[in-house]
Amino acid sequence: MRREPLLNAAVFLGLLAVVLWARATDEPFTITLATRVAILALAGVGLNLALGLGGLVSLGHAVFFGIGGYAMGILASHAQSYSPLIEWPVLIEGTKSMPVIWLVAMAASGLAALGIGALSLRTSGVYFIMITLAFGQMFYYFAISWPAYGGEDGLSIYVRNGFPGLNTLDPIQFFAICYVILGLALWLFSRLSRSAFGLALGAARQNGERVMAVGIAPYRLRLVAFALSGVITGLAGALFADLNRFVSPTMFSWQTSGEIMVFVILGGVARLFGPVVGAAVFILLEHVLGGLSEFWHIYLGAVLLVVVLFARGGIIGLIAGREVRHD
Amino acid sequence: MIKGDDDMNLKTLAMAGALGIAACAAQAEVKVGMITTLSGGGAGLGIDVRDGFMLAIEQSGRSDIEVIIEDDQRKPDIAVQLADKMIQSDKVDVMTGIIWSNLAMAVVPGAVAQGKFYLSPNAGPSALAGKGCNKNYFNVAWQNDNLHEAAGAYATDETFLNAFIMAPNYPAGQDALTGFKRYFDGNIAGEVYTQLGQTDYAAEIAQIRDSVADHVFFFLPGGMGISFLKQYADSGVDKPLIGPAFSFDQGILQAVGDAALGVKNTSQWNKDIDNPANAAFVASFQEKYGRLPSLYASQGFDTANLLISAVETADVNDPDAFRAALEAANFDSTRGDFAFGNNHHPIQNIYVREVIKEGDVYTNKIVGTALTNHADAYAPECKM
Amino acid sequence: MSLILFIEQMLNGVQFGVMLFLMAAGLTLIFGVMGLINLAHGSLYMIGAFAAAWVAGMSGSFVLALIASLAAAAAAGALIELMVIRRLYDRDHLDQVLATFALILIFSEGTRWLFGSFPLFLEIPPYLSGPVTLPGGIEYPLYRLAIIGVGLLVAAGLFALIARTRIGIQIRAGEADREMIAALGVNISALYTIVFALGAALAGLAGALIGAIQSVQVGMGEPVLILAFVVIVIGGIGSIKGALVGAILVGLTDTLGRVLLPAVFAQFMAPQAASSVGSSLASMSIYILMAGVLVMRPSGLFGKA
């Protein structure tokens, strides 16, 4: 099958083409939508690492998305009000610098993923789905009732954070940042899936005992995959917060976890570009159907149902055909 | 995404058609972007605001106000996205429509920072009333604490001594209890925060029964209030209930039934406020939509009339003149007297209502005035 | 807190647990027999409540309303089993989650389209309303006692169904070895439709019973769905006994957490802060319970490893 790489290239360049066209015709909102697609796709790439490569069906990825978002919100709100984050034992100030925020977001969500993964990976199957959901709900209720950073009202950041040498308030420059990061994440995903680590992870998904027999501990493999997955989704959360200049506990809700999962499945599980296609189609549907009827969720549901029932392998599977497995 | 623009134009045309006006985008002088909740949970409130707003626009007969309506699904990130679209693509002049405080906090600061006017038909978070007030932000409903403060004042007037107070554990709930306590002179016999979205209140009702309280103040909007009222009525506890109007609006009361009868609640509006504007509003709303208007519909109606009054006297492209016209609030409010304070929040009467049954329909009647010409507690902090 | 109040709160916890069991029973039955995760179970609960409210509004009879809720939910269940669900049995959990998530969207907005955006009215019948006095002087609503009764009846009925009847034998055989019972000539697809409709009917009954003391509105199914999942995961998926124990455990944890945690924090904090912190922790308590149980026993309390 050579169609999938072609399709992938078309999708990736297509997203860029839409943005350039929108710039030429002065449609800044279309650029905003495309940026949204890139960021949600990035969150999906994170989940796809756990879900597609590792077979770990996590219904709690909103935790990492939300932690990334709040890392941005908390740091930027302290910088905005010139009040230090911590004064003792060391002085930590807020910041409006994107690279610093990204590092903090990735570190925080990675740590959370390590902790949650270490506990959750003791279970499997439906129990794993549900324990990740439970962790999501814990964070959600905590964020709603924790008054320090706005509770359910969330946090508004009045000006988008800065990136050295760029004007992030210009929609196309902010899109460029997200687009490059998405590209890097996709490159990392494709490298990982073909690396020894990725192959062992795939083998562990299909047959845990067989991997153990050759001396690899599936638990550790999965934990590393889960943590990496959390890091990427956390970074997407920080970018998403910067896109909206706003964070709220909704980012932690189980519906957010569900939507990230929908992107991955809609596009095609374990396909490199599955989340990108899924996020793009989802945003397009939301935009088009939402204009047609107040009751557009009915149509959205019908489309999802048709994809699950009749297009196994998602949209990419439908267009590029079944994946040929080499394992 | 090209599609997106098509469907927007389609919607605009459909709307102009519905109004019997041959408007097209080029002729419209004022573009209004309405972001409100039209699908999913809580859609009833957004639909009422929209219907009230559009009724006023229709009655004005003006063809120079174009309204673009979008559904935020009660999600803050969708609301922000729609606001970006309206500001960047549709190039609206005025925004309105948001129901929920958390969505307002996501949209309003950004919108007014970009020079847009925002007229709030429902949410009034304290962050936008005090230090965070803005010259382009006008609240036509209330500051969030107002109705709770009125409940506290009413409890004091009724010489209640011990209050049991209850609200969900989120910022609006915490503000509600603070607002009640600000105007209540008695003791707090119990203070309980429930879970947001909680449906079973047996444990709280047992605590109420066990406490020394002589009345209960609760703020439980939407379905939470319905559940609590039904369960409380069935529990046999007979301490009087007081609440803000949100659990007793026209849309919800029919679902509560007898359990709400006789309960006192505080509101800045009711359908029996005696003035010509209100009488005309109630009659025409009922005629057009076939249901009694709610509090939210009245707020949508007033918001549109405020806008119309400003459009009549000033050009929206001259922000200072337009702002002055809004500040004058020169329109016939369904509430009777209406004026803005220095922070662009209403100064108005807040009434005490009692739930009654008229024929088969549960509704409210005004039984007293809790606070007269009431402004909010945050106004002094606002420096504009 | 007095002893009487504490006992009353325990009773409230048990009662809340039984309410959850009504919902969880169908969910765990469907999972146990067909291995299907059904997120749309909450929609069936909503359908039951709406059918009951509609019929009660037309006829004024609560008994007719309950019958309508059973019939409507069973019919809706059978319909989606025939059209959608049966294509999902041999799929992985991922596809099941997504497909039944899509069903939630369709059912929720479809119901809103039919009945409008405002909550419906459904009330307790006069012969079950008001409180009764229990030994020890506790005043307790009769209707809540009735819910406990119905819940225990359903539990007993399900145990009997599975242990004693022909269909129960087929269900147990099907759980153990699907191919084998098909080979023995049992019409397995008819069996699955029946089991799914039965689970749906239970959800519908729960919706109608609970709808009378809560709010009958679109979206009422999702919060209780998540709680029901917590229940069956704690109990061990597929086990009716596990669902009953899990439900009561969750009901007690939630109710006592809400009551006791603010009181505990009030010992060393200001009342308002104590109430706020205590209730935050209480809202997380059942999820902490669930995570704790799963870390100790990865297949729940009564699950098969």
Automatic annotation (TrEMBL), chain A:
Subcellular location: Cell membrane
Keyword Cell membrane included in the entry's annotation: yes
Protein name according to UniProt: Amino acid/amide ABC transporter membrane protein 2, HAAT family
CDD domains, alphabetized: TM_PBP1_LivM_like
Coiled coil: none
One GO CC term, this protein: plasma membrane
Keywords annotated in UniProt: Cell membrane, Membrane, Transmembrane, Transmembrane helix
Alphabetical list of InterPro entries matching this protein: ABC_transp_permease (IPR001851), LivM-like (IPR043428)
Transmembrane stretches, start-end: 34-55, 62-80, 100-119, 126-149, 169-189, 219-240, 260-285, 297-320
Any one GO molecular-function label of the UniProt entry: branched-chain amino acid transmembrane transporter activity
Cell membrane recorded as keyword: yes
Protein's membrane topology: Multi-pass membrane protein
Predominant subcellular localization, coarse grouping: membrane
Domain of life, source organism: Bacteria
TrEMBL record, chain B:
Record keyword Signal present: yes
Domain of life: Bacteria
Keyword annotations from UniProtKB, A to Z: Amino-acid transport, Signal, Transport
The keyword Transport is assigned to this record: yes
One Pfam family it belongs to: Peripla_BP_6
Domain Leucine-binding protein: 29-359
GO terms of biological process kind: amino acid transport
Membrane-spanning ranges: none
Database matches in InterPro entries: BCAA_transport, Leu-bd, Peripla_BP_I
Entry's family note: Belongs to the leucine-binding protein family.
Descriptive protein name: Amino acid/amide ABC transporter substrate-binding protein, HAAT family
From TrEMBL, chain C:
PANTHER family for the chain: ABC TRANSPORTER ATP-BINDING PROTEIN (PTHR11795:SF442), BRANCHED-CHAIN AMINO ACID TRANSPORT SYSTEM PERMEASE PROTEIN LIVH (PTHR11795)
Membrane topology listed for this record: Multi-pass membrane protein
MF terms (GO), sorted A to Z: transmembrane transporter activity
Protein family per UniProt: Belongs to the binding-protein-dependent transport system permease family. LivHM subfamily.
Domain of life: Bacteria
GO biological process, one term: amino acid transport
Protein name: Amino acid/amide ABC transporter membrane protein 1, HAAT family
Annotated transmembrane regions: 12-32, 39-56, 62-85, 97-122, 142-163, 184-213, 225-252, 273-296
A Pfam family hit: BPD_transp_2
Subcellular location: Cell membrane
Entry GO CC: plasma membrane
Keyword annotations from UniProtKB, A to Z: Amino-acid transport, Cell membrane, Membrane, Transmembrane, Transmembrane helix, Transport
